[in-house]
């Protein structure tokens, strides 16, 4: 899964002023790390970023 797809999934849970920062972090992350965030069994995937 690519960074833009993940960002679309969690964008409604992130303050708008932080979207660019999160987008950059996701783009710099490996695909393995992004897939790990998506597959975590949290109610909210944003917890996986913390």
Structural account:
With 50 residues, this protein is mainly alpha-helical. Helix content is 62%, strand content 0%. It has helices at residues 3-10, 19-28, 31-39, 46-49. The two termini are 19 Å apart. The model has no long low-confidence stretch (mean pLDDT 81).
Descriptive labels:
50 residues, globular
Order of helices and strands: HHHH
Average the pLDDT over all residues and give the rounded result: 81
Radius of gyration: 10 Å
Q: Provide the low-confidence segments as ranges.
A: none
Number of extended strands: 0
**Gross geometry:** globular
Distance between the termini: 19 Å
Biggest beta-sheet profile: none
Q: In what range is the share of β-strand residues?
A: under 5%
Helix coverage percent: 55-70%
By helix and strand content, what is the structural category?
mainly alpha
Number of helices: 4
In short:
By secondary structure, the chain is mostly helical. The protein is built from four helices and no strands. Helix 1 runs antiparallel to helix 2 (19-28).
């Amino acid at each position: 899964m690519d960074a833009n797809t993940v960002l679309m999934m969690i964008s409604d849970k992130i303050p708008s002023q932080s979207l660019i920062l999160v987008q950059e972090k996701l783009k710099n992350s490996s695909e393995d790390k992004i897939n790990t965030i998506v597959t975590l069994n949290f109610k909210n995937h944003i917890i996986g970023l913390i």
